[in-house]
Request: fold
Amino acid sequence: MGAHSTMGGKSLFEKVWDDHVVVPETEDTPAVFYIDLHIIHEVTTPQAFNMLRETGMPVRRPDLVLATMDHSTPTEPITDLGASLDAVSDPEPANQIRAMVKNCADFGIELHGFGDKYRGIVHVIGPEIGATQPGKTIVCGDSHSSTHGAFGAMGFGIGTTEVGHVLATQCLLQRKPKSMAVNITGKLQPGVSAKDIILALIGKIGVDGGTGHVIEYRGETIRGLNMEQRMTICNMSIEAGARAGMIAPDEITIEFLKGRPKVPQGAEWDAAVERWLALASDADATFDKEVDLDVSNLEPQVTYGTNPGMVVPVSKPIPNRPGNASFTKAINYMQVEADKPMLGIPVDVVFVGSCTNSRMTDLRSVAKILDGKKVADNVRMLIVPGSQSVKDEAEAEGLDKIFTAAGAEWREAGCSMCLGMNSDKLGKGQLCVSTSNRNFEGRQGPGGRTVLASPETAAASAIAGVIADPRATI
Amino acid sequence: MEQITQFTSATTVLAIDDVDTDQIIPARYLTTTERAGIGKALFADWRFDKDGNPIAGFPLNEPGATERKILVAGRNFGCGSSREHAPWALHDFGIRAVISSEIADIFRNNSLKNGLVPVIVDKQTHQWLLDNPGAEVTVDVEACEIRLPNGTAVSFPIDGFARHCILEGIDQTGFLLQQLDKITDFEKTRSWQP
Reply:
């Protein structure tokens, strides 16, 4: 479907795409497209394993599957999958967790389960174990698979039928998407971070602005970000409707991956680095669409509505769209008013976590703001590390002490209140400043109201008890 | 997958933009390990109050809604999460086509694998459909068009292969399995190994 230039150089996306075509697409059939890494979790795989059982098929490449449990897992400590799990989980999610253990055992897949250093959110553990590498195709039954694009991989979310396709054949049927360059320039102000960039971009192009496209984030600002900040940006590509979001690998990428368990070793490492650094888009590569964003004067961003495109700078008034039914429904649900700013609105819960913002960079930013301060009396603050290994590292740095001294809850790794599948849920009407990725109605619990923001804004708001501008505290 | 060539049905209209898959089926209903009966959770928080009673005025609660096979929705339907439970729930409820001016990529892709036809039409046709709930519309997969009550035919884009699978009622897994020799060759001959 992509109307690509066949002249001139190739983009990062085109290089990765071309490298994985097993059978080229024709008018009648999509391309047979090879997948290098399949990440699986307990929620979107049971029906796919059922399909394999019903048809007697094995998993073709269990060595290319990375399995963990994150979505419906409790964020309270458990010691075993029996009574200990039942004590902190509803029966259905507990059943799903046990089914995952059985499915992985039956099909010969290594599972990073409870007690494993690398159990955690699918998109956090892939990079930290070094399974996420430049040039790979990476899929997961989770739309935030775009996160892995930060490494110059092509990561995208798939449904459960496609999870079955990859388990059975290691391939998907795909039409080549279009390409879109997003050029980001300018130096961020203190207190403004990667999350604000991606929220501002989604506000600019809309929640469908990337539909049908693979985004490549480029420009001096991107080059200056560390890998965790780049992951925050690529993570939310799907919130602009994009198929994937990618960033060209560079020395920062190589430095991050070096020495991680799953990366090549010795001479193979040198060969891999050479291959990875050659993935960057050629100077004469062309894109189907281009967008520029200057972030020099960017304010911290907060959402006011019920999708991530309904976003405003924290001190600026919410827009007014009289006669727009979807807008009216959203601001009524959120109990906010057009023409007034979000700044100063009372907060009930602050959630720091999710595949968007649960890594060390995020936790350090939060700790810096919370250090020596107290979470406001009216606020419950949950801090949920992205993985067991993030938890270990944060505790080694003493961040957990800062969090708990401030009155925040420091919990076990998982998706937690990003999507309210375990018992971490908002109550009806509660307003939550959240570092997650979706402010859809009821996403964090039925009737809950979500305001998406950066870790810095979340921390500043936790102390203030109202939506706050982190620049005032830095 | 059931075979679909064409069908005619009155429409149900949900005139809201950017309906996300968390609304189509909230995450707390994703803890099932099966597919059967998932239609009960379709639009759970918009269809039912907290005691489980139907909310009057919600289009899918209208009399006859369970008989209707076509959902006309605001633009960018199905955005957000990749959960295939969303098309499963719509299909289980009885919906066989979703018509909008834009449909999100992953939802559209998942729908095509489950006998739910994603129909993207021009803005003018879309607006007419939004303004005329209950209109009798024919969705013709064979001809790649919908037909409005006044006889106007409006074409819609659908991937040729997905169309073939829907018309024949076959799933795409079989086609992939036929490619296993080529997949093995690819694995053996590629310049690097994952």
